[in-house]
Specification:
Layout: E1 9-12, H1 22-38, E2 41-44, H2 58-69, E3 75-76, H3 92-104, E4 108-111, H4 115-127, H5 143-151, E5 157-160, E6 167-172, E7 176-181, E8 189-191, H6 199-209, E9 214-218, H7 225-235, E10 241-245, E11 248-249, H8 259-267, H9 274-279, H10 284-292, H11 307-313, E12 324-325, H12 328-341, H13 344-357, H14 364-374, H15 383-388, H16 400-403, H17 410-426, H18 432-446, H19 450-462, H20 470-477, H21 479-502
Parallel strand pairs: 1-2, 2-3, 9-10, 11-12
Antiparallel strand pairs: 4-5, 5-8, 6-7
The chain binds glutamic acid.
Length: 504
């Protein structure tokens, strides 16, 4: 059952002040799911009024990250739409118009207090152990006083005229009613002295004008949530459904991840940044599955979800207000599940760039053969380069370590390699059906386990101790190359076995 029968208009409204991380991506995802489920619209709005914290590059990263995750939007700062512009820096005049409406209706006022006076006030309140708060000094200025200050060109901010008495009840979808005494709230600044609206005004005006029905945002906005409800009421607008999502905690579960910790983590091969996850070889499907379940669940057991499943099953009722710890082990697990869920040809297409990046020249035909045999064995797409690079190497030069299986001496490995080579030279192929039985028989005859014989072959052909299944791999490498690599292994082992004997 869809949680909202009428089409939802929802927005993801990031500030271009840093990289797109999984917290933001989850907010975007929930918006997207609700929009698609209800046949509504998903809007991408850029909240770029804070020029000091603006980071060039982050707009593109947001766009790239969302595209990669498959969360396509219907209206946005890059594609426009019926409520354009969707970039707050281009909507300044609109906010001033609405600030004026609040002033005219007595819900806001101009405050001409100088930074110096405000600082003195702060210190005084600090000394008296009072909460820092504006004292309402300019709230009672007469029209004549205001006119005079304006004429004199005195800078001012616009503040919300918070009611002094009574209380406000704000309703959050996950947390229920939150009631606060108005006396606990401040006369918050809505427009700064440079004429730029702050989030409190800009986001409310935009959400209303853009017809937003559900506001998904981080729980860091709970503190000023009552103000936002006041602003809606002051305009006489209908409240949207407010949904404050819990924060993500560090993997340890202790506290929120700091900027520095996130950057540190990215260096260690794990990351909370969306475009890093792409580069590390994670699938967007796995990211979506993972973050969907960090704050939402379907039931106690189902853990595998595609984006389409989520569109069908997502519901606001199953959102969870308690914070979730980031669990990378789970993430790897999901990535494995989604890798195995891909069509092998699709997996071939996706591992290609990772192999190429590792310096291999690949061909699609071989890639398609490899895909099904690495599919059950790789955790990330990047693992394919380590696991399957040997398929694309002209030459594989194994180390002695790779050629000598456990509980086997170099001399024994040499004997195995020689006999296996002689045997394979007599066989028409190196595939499962042709070669496995004869090699098993050889092992028995020589008094070794099949594992020892296969281990030597694996080292010779792949140069690795761990590889996709031996016979499938040999079949793809091809008989000629297998024999060539086995001859090389004999040479390497012979040299080393001699050294080994000489050193005794
Ligand atoms: N720009 C705000 C942020 O990045 C958006 C909050 C909201 O979605 O209302 O936190």
């Amino acid at each position: 059952m869809p949680s909202s029968p009428s089409p939802a208009r929802v927005r993801f409204a990031p500030s271009p002040t840093g990289r797109l991380h999984i917290g933001g991506a989850r907010t975007a995802l929930y918006n997207y799911l609700l929009a698609r489920q209800t046949g509504g619209q998903f809007i991408l709005r850029l909240e770029d009024t804070d020029r000091k914290r603006y980071q060039p590059g982050s707009e593109q990263e947001i766009i790239d990250g969302l595209h990669w995750l498959g969360l396509e939007w219907d209206e946005g700062f890059d594609i426009g739409g019926p409520h354009a512009p969707y970039r707050q820096s281009e909507r300044k005049a609109i906010y001033l118009e609405y600030a004026q409406k609040l002033i005219d209706s007595g819900h806001a006022y101009r405050c001409f207090c100088t930074p110096k006076r405000l600082e003195a006030l702060r210190q005084q309140q600090h000394k008296r152990k009072q909460q820092p708060r504006y004292d309402g000094h300019c709230r009672t200025l007469t029209q004549a006083e205001i006119r005079q200050k304006l004429d004199a060109g005195q800078p001012y901010v616009v503040r919300f005229a918070m009611p002094r008495e009574g209380s406000i009840t704000a309703h959050d979808r996950l947390r229920g009613d939150i009631t606060v005494q108005n006396s606990q709230l401040d006369d918050y600044i809505l427009v700064k002295s440079d004429g730029l609206a702050l989030y409190h005004l800009a986001a409310m005006v935009d959400d209303h004008l853009m017809g937003i029905t559900h506001v998904f945002r981080g729980e860091e906005w709970l503190a000023t949530f009552p103000l936002h409800v006041h602003i809606y009421n002051a305009f006489g607008w209908q409240q949207p459904e407010w949904v404050h999502l819990s924060v993500f905690l560090k993997p340890s579960g202790k506290g929120k991840m700091s900027k520095r910790e996130s950057a540190q983590m990215a260096k260690g091969g794990q990351s909370i940044f969306v475009t890093d996850l792409e580069a590390l070889g994670y699938l967007p499907e796995a990211v979506v599955n993972w973050i969907a379940l960090m704050g939402w669940s379907y039931d106690d057991k189902t853990e595998f979800f595609t984006l389409d499943d989520l569109i069908e099953k997502f519901s606001l009722d199953k959102l969870n207000p308690s914070p979730a710890a980031i669990n990378f082990t789970k993430f790897d697990h999901f990535n494995g599940l989604h890798i195995r869920h891909l069509h092998p040809d699709e997996l071939a297409r996706r591992v290609k760039p990772f192999l190429e990046q590792a310096g291999y020249q690949t061909d699609d035909e071989t890639l398609k053969k490899i895909a099904p045999i690495i599919q059950p064995r790789i955790k990330t797409l990047d693992d394919a380069a380590v696991m399957a690079g040997f398929f694309f190497r002209e030459q594989v030069v194994p180390t002695l370590d790779a050629l000598v299986p456990r509980k086997t001496t170099p001399q024994q490995a040499l004997a195995i390699a020689r006999r296996a080579l002689a045997l394979l030279e007599t066989l028409p192929g190196v595939d499962h059906a042709t070669a496995e039985q004869p090699l098993r028989a050889l092992a028995e005859e020589m008094g070794f386990s099949a594992g020892q014989v296969f281990g030597v072959l694996r080292g010779a052909v792949t140069g690795q101790r761990v590889s996709p299944p031996l016979f499938e791999s040999m079949a793809i490498v091809g008989r000629e190359k297998v024999l060539e690599r086995l001859r090389q292994a004999v040479r390497i082992l012979a040299e080393n076995a001699q050294n080994f004997a000489a050193s005794r």
